[in-house]
Amino acid sequence: MSVSETSPVTLVASDLDRTLIYSAASLDLSMPDAEAPRLLCVEVYGHKPLSYMTETAAALLTEVATSTLFVPTTTRTREQYHRIHLPGPTPRYAICANGGHILVDGVSDPDWQARVETRIADECAPLTEIRAHLATTADPAWLLKDRVAENLFAYLVVERSLLPEEWVKELAAWARPRGWTVSLQGRKIYAVPAPLTKSAAMHEVARRSGATRTLAAGDSLLDADLLLAADLGWRPGHGELADEGWRAPHVEALEARGGAAGEEILRRFLTASSAASAASSDSSASSA
Fold first, then answer.
1. Greatest distance between any 2 Cα atoms in the chain
2. Which CATH architecture has domain 125-193?
């Protein structure tokens, strides 16, 4: 990050999937084909391109990552995160597994990992109990995959068109008194321990880095705590939060959807971080 050691530090904690990076289906390229933006592939999986940014978003992210402390903040596992090759300088910090891992120069911090695991063990029903319930209640007619992430949480890949909405609500009601939360994101249903949050990990990175201001963006219910914890936040016009009509006083609900939302979020990061730097400069000048 190209700021001096004495400069105020703006930490930008952003969700990745469907916030900054997009699958081909989620880009929402509704314009005429001849007017579609050029795309940069940022992830390959199974020898095929999987995730993209517009070239405009890629340039904006490079600017964000060189002028702030940019911290990718994702529910992805470490392995899934390492498949992504974002433009710009490699982030010093990254948050994976919904806050279960803080990566420092690409390596998980063992002290943070131990703290998270201890808290989950003290406050939540065991993962085995959650998985057993999922196995007995999920219908093979719509269940495609049953997965565990980092031995911390579980998720199902489903055929969304066949998934009964009531099943997700019933699962959430069952999980809540056991210390777990449920989130539906696209074709995935996540069951996550309540203490496992992106916001807790963001606060820890802010503490370590001496960040004086935090900005955040995200599209799903698993991002809500992150948005609430930041000084300013943005959510796109698509996703779980938009579908729920979720709002907070310091979180702006953007109208842009798909890849265009990724661009707009990055522009807001730059504007907010520039304003913070200008305010700090004015304050320093007036006190000199």
1. 69
2. Alpha-Beta Complex (3.90)
Model pTM above 0.85: yes
Cβ atoms < 10 Å from Cβ of 277: 17
Task: Measure the CA–CA gap between 231 and 229, rounded to whole angstroms.
Answer: 7
| Amino acid occupying residue 259 | G
Q: pLDDT tens, 142-159?
A: 999 999 999 999 999 999
Going by CATH, does the domain composed of 10-110+196-287 fall within 3.20.20.140? Answer: no
* Backbone torsion region of residue 210, taken as left when φ is above 0, otherwise alpha when ψ lies between -120 and 50, otherwise beta: left
Q: Which residues have C-beta within 8 Å of that of residue 104, sequence separation ≥ 6? A: 92, 93
* Domain extent listing, the chain: 10-110+196-287, 125-193
Q: Which amino acid, one-letter code, is at 107?
A: V
Tally of CA atoms within 13 A in the half-sphere of 212 that contains its CB: 11
